Amino acid sequence: MNIGFSRWHRRRRxxxxxxxxxxxxxxxxxxxxxxxxxxxxxxxxxxxxxSGSPTYRASGWIYGMxxxxxxxxxxxxxxxxxxxxxxxxxxxxxxxxxxxxxxxxRWNATRAQLLRTRSLGGEFVLLVHDLWGADxxxxxxxxxxxxxxxxxxxxxxxxxxxxxxxxxxxxxxxxNEPNITLFWNRTQSQYFEMWKRAYQRxxxxxxxxxxxxxxxxxxxSTGGWWTQYLDYVKANNVVPDIVSWHSLPGDPVAxxxxxxxxxxxxxxxxxxxxxxNEYGASNEQNPADGAWYIARLERAGADxxxxxxxxxxNLHNDLANLLTxxxxxxxxxxxxxxxxxxxGSQTGQIASVTPSSNYDAFATKASGxxxxxxxxxxxxxxxxxxxxxxxxxxxxxxNNQVRVLVERVPYNGGGAVTGPVTVQNxxxxxxxxxxxxxxxxxxxxxxxxxxxxxxxxxxxxxxxxxxxxxxxxxxxxxxxxxxVGGACSATIKxxxxxxxxxxxxxxxxxxxxAVNGWTVKWTWxxxxxISSLWNGRQSVSGSSVTVTNESYNGSIAAxxxxxxxxxxxxTAATPTATCTSP
Length: 582
What we know:
The protein is 23% helix and 29% strand. Helix 8 runs parallel beside helix 9. The longest helix is centred in the middle third of the chain and has 18 residues, at 188-205.
């Protein structure tokens, strides 16, 4: 880590310490059927309200994969429903990149991480500025110095050719944090000219690939740099496909509201979700704040990529500090990784949550269970979680009773954590189709999960601990699901649409027998093409699409279901899908 880069990180950490402290913890839990106990704060979960299925919009990271793309092992990504990686070779060589004559190493790392990300079902956000070399070092030149754009044009030509040669799409993040001198040490007008030139070149080369920006070290506002940028891109017809910013710290819900105000007042359309492509200050990276950001990103409807505060070789490893590894190449998860793992296990339909001033939650209901991930704010004390309309869940309530399983996710000082700790596993009799779980919080960085199960069933069997996972060789691949099982069906529905694109969800349903491994096929009616897909692996032949299960969602109990989703280009369509199981 170089001095300039380190100084900027220290400044942001100091700011975070002043503005936001992590908060949410617990020591014990009591489930009651009667009125809620006196609580410092309370949140409510209404299972009769809410809609849509989880898309795991918070499961994105900046870097966190080894330079050659081989590690960490696959399950650390698939278990958390990995959606995004944002990278471009930062800090390799140092100074490195195009301006130092060391482009190749950064591109080779970027290519390896891009291809691994795609193989894991994720979208890759390409950091152009890192490949140029503007990653915090005092570089010798910036695009357009002295009015000469030849060098930058040559750089773009090389990068465009290299991306095209991979055969896979990327999202183009044209320049990181251009409003601070650490990353853009030139005038705003020179940045605007760079943005326009890059936008026009990339749009011409890749008409369907998405352009992201401005990725500023700021949150949306109604004046200053943010609105100056909006006015420029609007006037010059170079509006990004995905509007982005950083939240270090910040509240995604408030950020999105201001972004809507500032864009709508200028007539700037924003049909795709915003991308908060750095969230979580360094002192917010713990189970409590991690869960809070997940809940707020889901509430805001914004995609998020968790910040990475590591430097040097550690930047390119450990899934952005969610893991640790030893000299033997064995990986162990930290507490916050377990938060994302629980988040990744939440399927079915999203339930409505009413937050308090310092706490929020993300809740879902599926056949046979309901799950609540609780996130904290800036205080400790008792939090009453009011669970309402449990009669609208499926296969959970029996004879007016439900099993309440509460687990604590420890921070452990940022060290390795073997798994959540069971705090309560109690059968509760409901009152008015609800109950209250009281969480007395004492450890500020810990958090809680609540799982509701049928009363006569045991708690879910713990998954094998991923701690001390050996590193795979670069050529290793996930094991296929066992080729046994019964019949299945698949249904496609459109959940969102915009001019020139749409988002769909596919439900895969098992029949009277369990299935182990599934394949869904359909044919597009009008030239539609998938731009991104999650929770499945796709192959395309002309207008025919085939999607097979991931390693984590191939097994479906009899009568149960799982889902995968995708975004696509073209007019929204819901073709008939077929499902087969080996």
